[in-house]
Amino acid sequence: MITAAALAALATACAVGSWRFTTARWTSRAPRLAIILWQSLGVCWGLATTGAMLAFAVQPYDAGVLPGLIAFAQGETPAQAWDPLHVLALIAGLTALAVLIAVLLTAGVQALRARRRHRMLLALISHDDPGVPGVRVLAHPSAAAYCVPGLRSQVVVSEGALKLLSEDELTAVLAHEAAHVRERHDLVLLPFAALRRALPWSKVVADAQAQVELLVEMAADDRARRYCSPRRLATALLRFGSAGAMPTPHGMLGVHVQNVMARVDRLIKPAPELAASVRYGFIALSVTLVTAAPFLWVIQL
């Protein structure tokens, strides 16, 4: 019972922490750190929520969550008799865990299919350009710049973007897209899209997904400004915003016009970095969250 209560308290703390985190103001100063913390909260919340139900369910085995589930799967006789409440908790816990896994796998499969179809389409409507080596040029008059993530990643720009941007601005945009590819931001966003699919009614989940999407763009901006002028990237974002950029295809990562001014402001007037003690504190919190729920799955309190 203590293990179930501890996991329930941890799940509640993660839910409240996520709700408070959606309004945090420091995240734009350290987007990568904020992304790690969001991922830690998500993993901990999922394991703690399902673990609380399963810990109560396997209580008749007088064992922890994982040992109790193994004993149940092997058909061992529990030390105490089952009652309807424990059976209901077992069904609810396994169902919730199965749903979380299923929506994650479904989101991943759909993204892979969308990217495969888009690569086939690009083979028909895009071409190489000596002026932008290694980049596929899309035959479209609207401005567009995005990447197709994966093992065979591609960076794509439209003919409209080539006409819209100066050479320096184009370099900045391509560096931004290369950052998405290098840091595999598609994998960062996948669990949040899956969780949104599982809990479409949750405002906290919607806000979390929106914030992580913005943080991913900020992280790519930070990587890009190592290779180009921040002002050039800022002006490129403003050009895309004012020109009405073409929407990024499903499953891809591209230049988003949402929250353009927030990104432009931090590029032109960067805020001071977080103090080292604050960074280490958030890293320690992330490690604690990632390890706490699995630890409680294994032991019995």
Keywords, please?
5 strands; transmembrane helix; 11 helices; about 300 residues; mainly alpha; about 5% strand; five-stranded mixed β-sheet; about 65% helix
Write a structural description.
Its cofactor is Zn(2+). GO terms for molecular function: metal ion binding; metalloendopeptidase activity. Belongs to the peptidase M48 family. There is one protein chain. The protein has helices spanning about 1-20, 30-55, 65-75, 85-125, 160-165, 165-180, 185-200, 205-225, 230-245, 260-270, 275-300, and strands at about 125-130, 135-140, 145-150, 155-160, 255. It is mainly alpha-helical. The protein folds into two domains: about 1-80 and about 275-300, no CATH class; about 110-270, no CATH class. Strands 1-2-4-3-5 form a five-stranded mixed β-sheet, sandwiched between helices. A hairpin with a 5-residue loop joins strand 3 (about 145-150) and strand 4. Helix 2 (about 30-55) packs parallel to helix 11. The chain is elongated and about 75 Å long.
